[in-house]
Design a protein that fits this description.
Number of strands: 11
Structural class: mainly beta
Radius of gyration: 13 Å
Order of helices and strands: EEEEEEEEEEE
Shape: globular
Largest sheet: 7 strands, mixed
Helix content: under 10%
Strand content: over 45%
Number of helices: 0
Length: 115
């Protein structure tokens, strides 16, 4: 199983980025997908979650109204659209696939929000 994140980078406050996470070697449509992030000196935290069929989503309070999680099961890919970015969104963003107690993680992608 491989889980790979794409799309991180440097963006100015107020800007936007879209992260992608591609998974292979698993039945993607069976897995709930979650984006997590970890800032320097802080614990990893959940940012957004989407159910296996994409019908349900949930967000951390800190990103509600600014971030949108979505998925394309035909492409085995989950996305995180991040708008109105703030310096406190700076972190390594990780993608997680979970099904029946089994977790797979990507290596993470750095997002830096700075002027």
């Amino acid at each position: 199983v491989h889980v790979v994140e794409f799309g991180g980078g440097l963006v100015q406050p107020g800007g936007s980025l879209r992260l992608s996470c591609a998974a292979s070697g698993l039945i993607f449509s069976s897995y709930d997908m979650t984006w997590h992030r970890q800032a320097p000196g802080k614990e990893r935290e959940v940012v957004a979650w989407i159910s296996s069929a994409g019908r349900f989503t949930n967000y951390a309070d800190a990103v509600k109204g600014r971030f949108t999680i979505s998925r394309d099961n035909a492409k085995n890919t989950v996305y995180l659209q991040m708008n109105t970015l703030k310096p406190e969104d700076t972190a390594v963003y990780y993608c997680n696939a979970r099904f029946a107690g089994t977790d797979y993680w990507g290596q993470g992608t750095q997002v830096t929000v700075s002027s």
